[in-house]
């Protein structure tokens, strides 16, 4: 950024995990979009979102990338002989320091990395066994695979949570999109048969759910919104690094973080069955 004459303070709390810059930028844009919607602004397309950001006095600089620019850059990248940097899949968190130097924290071994500097391990943080289980990486393939469209039988599970956990493992064993699509159709029918519905008539609180208030988000929560009932709500912390989206969905749907596996399964079903919409660049 300094080479381009830009200055910035990289210190907003959305960038506390993942690959740093992408998470931070994504968090900022989501926050700006939330603020616009809370103020009654309709976001009907990516273009309208960009124009809304440009109209207001905001420190967030945003511009629209047209299709012609995408095609031009795609052709340019294809002509470049870019070299891969080994070991980047092991990296968990990256922060820039000075020009040509970065700080990082990886997942496993640190001795093999050529990157400079280490981010100290977070102190004082304890992960429950439930969080560790939720972050388990499911195997992409296995020696034994069930027939296409397999759905676990009633005798294989006794609870709703166990059903979705087993279903998630079965989805991870699929090797083609066709297999995933067939299984998602079967799973959706099974969910309806089991009546695993989401009841929105609940009243969650920090007393009956075990969730805690997110002080950072509370400080920037807008107070001039038109929907007065939203002022009675409080942002909460999500205790999942790398699984924040399904954990957040669990809080919205059930009032706690215990149903992340179910939300992840429902996300897979949604994106698979309605793939035409998700693959359409012009569809919002």
UniProtKB/TrEMBL annotation:
Residues 123-151 have a biased composition (Basic and acidic residues). The lineage of its organism: Eukaryota, Metazoa, Spiralia, Lophotrochozoa, Mollusca. Residues 114-151 are annotated as: Disordered. It comes from Mytilus edulis. PANTHER family: ADF-H DOMAIN-CONTAINING PROTEIN, ULP_PROTEASE DOMAIN-CONTAINING PROTEIN. This is Uncharacterized protein.
């Amino acid at each position: 950024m300094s080479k381009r004459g830009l200055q910035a303070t990289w210190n907003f709390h959305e960038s506390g995990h993942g690959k740093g810059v992408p998470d931070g930028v994504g968090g900022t844009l989501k926050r700006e979009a939330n603020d616009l919607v809370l103020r009654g602004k309709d976001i009907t397309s990516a273009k309208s979102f960009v124009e809304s950001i440009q109209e207001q006095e905001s420190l967030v600089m945003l511009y629209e990338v047209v299709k012609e620019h995408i095609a031009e850059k795609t052709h340019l990248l294809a002509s470049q002989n870019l070299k891969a940097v080994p070991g980047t899949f092991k990296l968990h968190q990256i922060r820039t320091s000075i020009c040509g130097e970065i700080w990082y924290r990886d997942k496993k071994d640190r001795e093999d990395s050529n990157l400079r500097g280490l981010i100290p391990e977070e102190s004082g943080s304890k992960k429950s066994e439930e969080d560790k289980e939720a972050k388990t990486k499911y195997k992409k393939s296995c020696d034994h695979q069930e027939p296409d469209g397999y759905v676990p039988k009633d005798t294989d599970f006794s609870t709703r949570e166990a059903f979705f956990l087993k279903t998630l493992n079965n989805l991870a064993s699929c090797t083609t999109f066709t297999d995933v699509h067939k299984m998602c159709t079967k799973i959706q029918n099974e969910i309806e048969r089991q009546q695993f519905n989401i009841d929105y008539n609940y009243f969650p609180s920090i007393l009956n759910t075990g969730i805690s208030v997110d002080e950072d988000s509370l400080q920037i929560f807008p107070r001039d919104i038109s929907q007065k009932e939203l002022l009675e709500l409080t942002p909460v912390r999500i205790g999942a690094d790398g699984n924040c989206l399904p954990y957040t969905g669990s809080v919205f749907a059930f009032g706690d973080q215990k149903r992340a596996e179910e939300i992840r399964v429902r996300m897979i079903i949604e994106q698979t069955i309605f793939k035409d919409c998700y693959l359409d660049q012009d569809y919002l």
